[in-house]
Predict the structure.
Amino acid sequence: MGSIIRQWPRWAGYAAGAWSMGAVAVALYWAFGGEAGNRLDGMRPVAWVIAACLGAGGIMAVSSVRDVGRHMPRWWPLAGLWGAFAVAGAGTFGFVMNALQLAFTGTVDDWPAFGVEILCAAGAALLAGAALAYQRRTAGACARCGRVHADTGTVRRPAPVSAPPRGVHWAAYAGTLAFVPYAVMKTTWALGGSFAGIEGERVVAEFERNGASGLVLTLEKYGLDFTTLSAALGVVLLFALTREWGQVFPRWTPFAGRGVPRWLPLAPAWLGALTLGPYGVVGTVGYLLPPVVGLGDLPDDPLLHGWSGWTVAACGIVAFAVYGTALGAAAWSYQRRTRPRCVSPGSPAAGAPSAP
């Protein structure tokens, strides 16, 4: 299995092409009026555009690993692949929130939609891999590490532990502080207090009406809101991307001294960044700002109403916008800093002999 994963530049294009066939079928199902998993609000022309983008991306994915890709202008496959990646990435919207809901409640509001989010997350990873492999290969670099070296006789070595730029550190602090109002609000409710004019009892009652699990209700009883706990885990992930212990397991763990697999923090980081960041930014621009400038209405439902409801919404939406953006910056930096190096056998950097 490990050898197959290490050969990802060879098969990512084929896998992305196969994935696109299924994704195009789903988009065409929506275009012809299908409802399951469809969040386009009846905008059938958008489904046609999605099908076209993903179909083009699939064609370019296969072309990128075939001879035909070498005879195309380089920007054709790259535009098709990264464009399809953007569409697939947009489809992951809501994945993290649904995953947390599933973990704490045992169910999600819309299973078909959650299935589409999982499908899009897998496709985004495959399309990005195909694009990176083609981009590196056509630039004369190693498709696996992105650096220029001899085509044969090389071994891979982990990158040395390194710190991110100062700006990424500050982004991590900003992402952490952005959750403070949200955590205060949720903890206040869990302890039975009032925040923005809304009593904790009403929030718990809303949980019960929505079918919250016994675990969620038990946590609330002891002053622990499950979304606050999730936010705390998110902060841990953010600092794992910016601290040494995110690259080498610390001494108090069973794996002390071993390198942390890159995918372990990167997989949830990119999912979180692609999901929470756009959710927060779009929510801020489309939901929070219009009432402030007089171009939209305030929230109007039994729990979130008027400026009180707006304040509650702002605590969550702004936190997701700042945290999601910070998480994306930290993930990008971590990915670049921890990229393995291909070195020649026998060189000081190669260390002990190893299989190529």
